[in-house]
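subagent[fold] <- orchestrator: predict structure for attached chain, return tokens only, no commentary.
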Amino acid sequence: MKNLITILLIIVCFNCKAQSPVLPLDDMGAYDQTNAYYKDLDNELDDFVGTWLYTDGDTSLKIILKKEEMHFNGRYYEDLIVGEYQYIEDGVEKINTLTDLNTVQGFEHEINGNNIYKDCIFLPVSDCIEGETRLGVILSDPITNHQASTLLHKRTVNGQEALNVFMSFSYSGDVTPKPDPTMPWQKEYLLIKQ
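subagent[fold] -> orchestrator:
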């Protein structure tokens, strides 16, 4: 009887694993499997975690990013970079979502994504290096209903960790004429890790 229970437990555990494979995050895309877990096996997302700050006179952009593991998106599980941001232009705060950092999860964050790129084809920044790990995320502007395709590139500036961030906004609303986003339509920023 003891052997029968052991065999049944092994079969049940094997079936659970067979139905929920753990796959590399880089395998996501057209081949996504229901109930699979797309895990950041190489810890590539970890390089982007932290508080990052761009300043230019009275204008600043502060981004706080964290990693959420095993987020269920309704079809499969995935590791994500999520975060919030604050943008100040000419000393005036235009948008601040930082208070939501620990109150929402997954795709509810104004910054979210996990698209890993290893080439400079998609939205290249001025100093893109072929083969480097780049992270694609979406930055949402809840005030004006804009979304920015955003690419993050790790850099070192004067011995400090930095992110070269390229943002390109598009508008997803029905209002005509289109309002401007709270940040420039398209811009490249260099943020220093705090």
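orchestrator: received. Logging for downstream: Confidence is low (pLDDT under 50) at residues 12-18. The radius of gyration is 20 Å.
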